[in-house]
Structure to design on (198 residues):
């Protein structure tokens, strides 16, 4: 397998191209670190939808879940074209001008066709993977889904084939004319901390 994603029209930026890359390793790292993703799709009524959901990456596939009766679960029965994003904010960037305030971040955008996982064993493995993402060993310290819970849960698989990773790091960009302004600038680091593991 290549260490890079293939660049496509949908993953080619129209601006800030220097922030974009197609390396699999940092994209996988963002997906593994991000606590949730957003999944955009067109609903059965033709209207756009975007839903936050919990996810787990297993190899070169990202799995996410929803309700079998939701617009996403219903639409995914025939396969569902989606755009999935995951973002981690690493810092708030304070500049001397409003225009140059920003964030330091790492993000992944994935395009592709998600499919319902219908194999019972694969569904069990992916449900377990989702629970294990919260805390290693948690699947052994909690009850497996009942038949009713299992039938109400849609597990979707999205191959990681058409993707890109984007990042911003470093200090604020300042216009030379603003350097002498008396305003403070800099980066306030942001971290996500899980207070405990049950």
């Amino acid at each position: 397998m290549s260490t890079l994603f293939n660049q496509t029209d949908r993953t080619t930026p129209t601006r800030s191209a220097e922030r974009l890359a197609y390396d699999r390793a940092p994209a996988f790292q963002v997906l593994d670190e991000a606590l949730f993703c957003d999944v955009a799709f067109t609903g059965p009524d033709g209207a756009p939808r975007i839903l936050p959901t919990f996810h787990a990456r297993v190899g070169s596939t990202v799995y996410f879940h929803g309700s079998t009766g939701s617009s996403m679960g219903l639409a995914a029965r025939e396969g569902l074209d989606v755009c999935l994003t995951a973002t981690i904010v690493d810092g708030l960037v304070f500049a001397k001008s409003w225009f140059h305030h920003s964030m330091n971040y790492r993000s992944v955008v994935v395009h592709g066709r998600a499919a319902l996982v219908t194999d019972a064993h694969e569904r069990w493995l992916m449900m377990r993977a989702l629970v294990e993402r919260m805390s290693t060993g948690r699947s052994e310290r909690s009850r497996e889904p009942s038949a009713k819970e299992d039938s109400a849960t849609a597990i979707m698989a999205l191959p990681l084939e058409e993707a890109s990773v984007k990042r911003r790091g470093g200090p604020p960009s300042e216009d030379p004319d603003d350097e002498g302004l008396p305003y403070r600038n800099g980066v306030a680091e942001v971290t996500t901390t899980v207070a405990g593991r049950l």
Notes: The chain has one domain: 18-167. The domain at 18-167 is CATH 2.30.110.10 (Pnp Oxidase; Chain A). The helical segments are 24-33, 71-75, 120-134, 147-151. The longest helix spans residues 120-134.
